[in-house]
Specification:
The structure holds two protein chains of two kinds. By secondary structure, chain A is mainly alpha-helical. Chain A has 14 helices and four strands. In chain A, β2 (168-170) and β3 form a beta hairpin. Chain A is globular. Chain B is an all-alpha fold. Chain B has a single domain, classed as ABC transporter involved in vitamin B12 uptake, BtuC (Orthogonal Bundle). Chain B is 73% helix and 3% strand. Chain B has twelve helices and two strands. The chains are: A mainly alpha, B mainly alpha. At the A-B interface, α6, α9, α11 and α13 of A face α5, α10 and α12 of B.
Chain lengths: 358, 319
């Protein structure tokens, strides 16, 4: 009914390959964008910005970066957290060394550094595959976090060993630091996420995306049909690390406000990996659905007992949370190994033919 | 010149000047290496029989140790708690097989790997709720493990070997021998190896996948308990023990994911080399704490030359 395709004819191949083969998809996306850009900012409270809206966007961006590498190019990485760290530290150095720099430019530039580091750690992928590569990316994870701790130049020789986000402003409006308003930060994150998502969608649909997918599906076959594996894998590492690095800079500058090296440790990497896998590998939409689930669920579970009027210790809630997230991961893997995006795809198929079974 | 001296000459001069200290370092490395090897063995067994990269091995160590200590705190005699802990690990193996693995048979490796991370999170939450997050003391003396030092004096120096460590090495060696005998000499062991070689062929000659998986996870549980006791008596029992799993991963890379020999040799190599690197190079030159990444970088370098690890099966690809 709602998804009726009758009457939508396509007369050219170009139209058939379009981003929105069905008009309703475009309408739905428009609706979501209106909510994200207009409705949420005007209705959300400070708490919602800080615990839901901003973190969901940042985590989805990180998962989007990982998804390019793992979902599209087929190279499993467990070092996402450390690459986010590279972005965050690079951004910190940029804004403290060059305080006149526009923060948005600093954030977008910081991704370049993590892209460089990503390519360096991606070189082993030319020889190593599968789980061996996954463990090799852990080398990046442990080495980089160690470096964040030992290289005091990175955090300007702070006694605490942590980076503290300074007050930064664009055209007289504070965008980061203690004085920034949540809604400004939300808009900035939203703008960058929208931009990078748009770029990614186009990249994955274009020539580069097809080379990545060919590499993922079978790298030897891809090589035989003339794809340069080195270029394909390393561009995947570079672009993925760029996006992950930008998300790391946003993570610290627009949300956390301060960061210690162990913030970028393994749990963060796994969190992003969960989002990418539960959302669906090789899909753009999945990152958002996964982030909503993984970020939103603990918040929901945390507020549920008090809403029901039950007194529970906060430590117990936290442990229950861990358990429930663990079981949910298993649950979702069992019911739909291809992730929430696939679930949506099935629902959409059903909606198109509804109310007739065939 | 100064830096070259510090890298290439000074450490070796130190080694020659104080051979007793070098031996102490090597011994410490050997003990941790044995434990890394044990954990890696648990990984290899599960990987060989089911192609599951079991990330939960580390948390199983913590869980086993916590159960043991927790039971003893409730007043159960030491050896009975060991038996009960083994029963718990068996129950865990059966549950994991039933609830998690059976519905996921035939899924891509990555999905199964993620499922074991799910198991890890679940066990962390459960363990925290049931036993609490506080650091506990391993019931070493109650289990009859000697606690004391063996002091040797080689080259006129001093070498201190803790009885706990000696026991750990001996028990680990016995466990490995028992495991090898089991795998090579018994019917079930042959079934496990057959399943590792070819799933379908093994199924078609009547080997039960379910039984083997439960068995393999149970063996991994036993290994986890032994490691938990050994590591716990050195450092106390807490969730910090989980990091030992991250130590076993480079061992697997170095030795090869399928090889039992590789796990043992890789474990010993990494244990000793990382200690030596930390003492002679990492500490003085890089500000210490290099143990967190040294093993990975070492394994990565080896892998660049042998992509399947030192003893892994050669990767043959067909299009």
């Amino acid at each position: 009914m709602l998804y009726r395709t009758a009457g939508q004819y396509k007369t050219t191949y170009r139209a058939d390959q379009g981003l929105f083969p069905i008009k309703q998809d475009a309408f739905l996306l428009g609706l979501i964008l209106v909510f994200a850009w207009v409705v949420f900012p005007f209705t959300a409270t400070e708490f919602t910005f800080q615990t839901l809206l901003t973190p969901i966007l940042i985590y989805s961006l990180a998962a989007l970066g990982l998804n390019i590498l793992t979902g599209y190019a087929g190279q499993l990485s467990l070092g996402t957290g450390a690459f986010m760290g590279v972005g965050a530290y690079a951004c910190y150095k940029l804004v403290t060394l060059m305080p006149w720099m526009n923060p948005i430019i600093a954030i977008l530039l910081s991704g370049v550094f993590s892209a460089g580091v990503g390519v360096a750690f991606g070189i082993p992928s030319l020889r190593i595959k599968g789980f061996y590569l996954a463990i090799a990316t852990l080398a990046a994870q442990f080495f980089l976090v160690w470096l964040f701790e030992k290289w005091s130049w990175l955090y300007n020789d702070n006694a605490s060993g942590a980076i503290q986000v300074p007050n930064l402003e664009i055209f007289g409006i504070y965008v980061s630091g203690p004085q920034a308003a949540s809604v400004t930060q939300y808009y900035l994150v939203l703008a960058i996420v929208t931009l990078l998502t748009w770029v990614t969608i186009n990249l994955t649909r274009g020539n580069l995306g097809r080379t990545w997918k060919a590499t993922r599906d079978m790298d030897i076959a891809a090589e035989l049909i003339g794809i340069n594996l080195m270029r394909s894998k390393l561009t995947a590492f570079a672009i993925s690390s760029y996006i992950v690095g930008v998300s790391g800079a946003l993570f610290v500058f627009m949300w956390r406000g301060a960061a210690e090296p162990n913030l970028f440790d393994i749990p963060l990497s796994f969190r992003v990996l969960f989002i990418a896998i539960i959302g669906g590998l090789g899909s753009i939409l999945g990152n958002y659905l996964g982030a909503i689930l993984i970020v939103g669920l603990p918040v929901l579970l945390g507020t549920l007992p008090s809403a029901l009027g039950i007194q529970v210790e906060s430590a117990l809630i936290e442990h229950l949370n861990t358990m429930i997230v663990g079981s949910l991961i298993i649950f979702f893997l069992i019911i739909e190994p291809h992730g929430l995006a696939q679930l949506w795809r099935l629902i959409r198929e059903k909606l198109i033919i509804w109310p007739f079974p065939h | 010149m100064e830096i070259l001296n510090k890298i290439f000459i000074a450490p070796f001069a130190d080694m020659v000047a104080a051979p007793d200290f070098l031996m102490q370092v090597l011994w410490e490395g050997l003990v941790s290496g044995v434990l890394y090897a044990l954990i890696a063995l648990g990984f290899v067994l599960i990987y060989r029989s089911s192609r599951i990269f079991n990330f939960a091995q580390g948390i199983m160590v913590v869980f086993a140790a916590l159960t043991l200590v927790g039971l003893h705190e409730m007043g159960v005699p030491a050896w009975i708690s060991v038996a009960l802990t083994l029963a718990v690990m068996f129950g865990l193996a059966v549950t994991i097989e039933r609830v998690v693995l059976r519905p996921l048979v035939g899924q891509p490796d990555l999905i199964l790997f993620m499922a074991t991370i799910g198991i890890t999170l679940f066990l962390i939450g459960l363990g925290e709720i049931v036993f609490g997050g506080a650091n506990k003391v391993m019931i070493t003396s109650e289990l009859g493990i000697p606690t004391g030092d063996l002091v040797l004096e080689p080259f006129g120096g001093l070498l201190i070997l803790q009885h706990i460590d000696i026991t750990a090495v001996i028990v680990a060696a016995l466990l490995v021998i028992a495991l090898l005998l089991f795998l090579n000499r018994t019917r079930m062991g042959r079934a496990i190896r057959a399943l590792g070689d070819d799933h379908q062929a093994a199924l078609s000659v009547g080997i039960s996948l379910q039984t083997v998986w439960v068995l393999v996870w149970f063996i991994a549980g036993i290994i986890a308990l032994v490691t938990g006791i050994a590591w716990g008596s050195r450092a106390g029992v807490s969730f910090a023990l989980e990091v030992i799993a991250y130590k076993a991963l480079p061992v697997l890379m170095l030795g090869g994911l399928e090889s039992i020999t590789g796990a043992i040799i890789g474990g010993l190599m990494i244990g000793m080399l990382e200690k030596m690197f930390e003492i002679y190079w990492g500490g003085p030159l890089l500000g210490g704490n290099t143990e967190s990444w040294f093993a990975y970088v070492l394994a990565l370098v080896v892998l660049l030359f042998r992509p399947q690890g030192l003893f892994g099966e050669k990767i043959i690809e067909r299009v």
